[in-house]
Amino acid sequence: MIERELTVANRLGLHARATARLVQLLSGYDVNATLTAKGREVNAKSIMGVMLLAAGTGTAVTLRIEGADEAAAAEDVCALFERRFDEDS
């Protein structure tokens, strides 16, 4: 299992488009993934679950990934967060 602490840094937070990018990215990996924020844990492969976090800019989230592709999945998700979901140009 891999666990990473991340911060939502894009201007609009985890809104629909950013959440869809995250879920689409994770769907390509054989992993179970969760995001935890504000005391709530959700399935990171579920658009509705991630949207329920209501994670705005600056929100700290914990990513937990477990499975066959966990290292690659964690690296790609961290990169997506670092790139601010490719939204802030």
TrEMBL record:
It comes from the Bacteria. PROSITE patterns: PTS_HPR_DOM (PS51350), PTS_HPR_HIS (PS00369), PTS_HPR_SER (PS00589). It holds the Pfam family PTS-HPr. Gene3D superfamilies: HPr-like. SUPFAM superfamilies: HPr-like. Keywords: Cytoplasm, Phosphotransferase system. It is found in: Cytoplasm. InterPro entries: HPr (IPR050399), HPr-like (IPR000032), HPr-like_sf (IPR035895), PTS_HPr_His_P_site (IPR001020), PTS_HPr_Ser_P_site (IPR002114). Residues 1-88 form the HPr domain. Its main location: cytoplasm. PANTHER family: PHOSPHOCARRIER PROTEIN HPR, PHOSPHOCARRIER PROTEIN NPR. Belongs to the HPr family. This is Phosphocarrier protein HPr. It comes from Luteimonas terricola. The lineage of its organism: Bacteria, Pseudomonadati, Pseudomonadota, Gammaproteobacteria, Lysobacterales.
